[in-house]
Amino acid sequence: MTEHLLIESGGPATGPAGERFAADAARLAADGHRVVLFLVENGVTAALPGACPAVEELLRGGGELWVDSLSTAQRALAGADLLDRARLVEMDEVAGKLLEPGVRAVWH
C-alpha cells in the first residue's frame, strides 16, 4: 500500500482549508493507508489540543503526526503543549521520508 506524507504549513488560522486537508489525511488513514501528517510553519498550531479536530481523528485512525521542532520553537511552543501522540521531528527526517520509495507527498 502507498504511504502518504501530507505537509501542512498554514494551520487553523488560515480557515477551513487546513482542517479539510487534515481530514483528507484522516480519511486515508481510515482507509488503511500509511499516513504521516507533517505540520510546519504556522501549521504546527494544529497540533495543539482542540485546535483541529481532524488531526485528532487522524491519530485515532492510526495516522502519524509529525511536528517541526524549529517551527514550534519559533512559536514558543513546547512538546508538552502538543497532542500526546505528536512527534517532534527535524527536517532531515522529513527529507529522508520524502526520498523513500513509494512515498507520495502533498504540500498544502
Automatic annotation (TrEMBL):
It comes from the Bacteria. This is Uncharacterized protein. The lineage of its organism: Bacteria, Bacillati, Actinomycetota, Actinomycetes, Kitasatosporales.
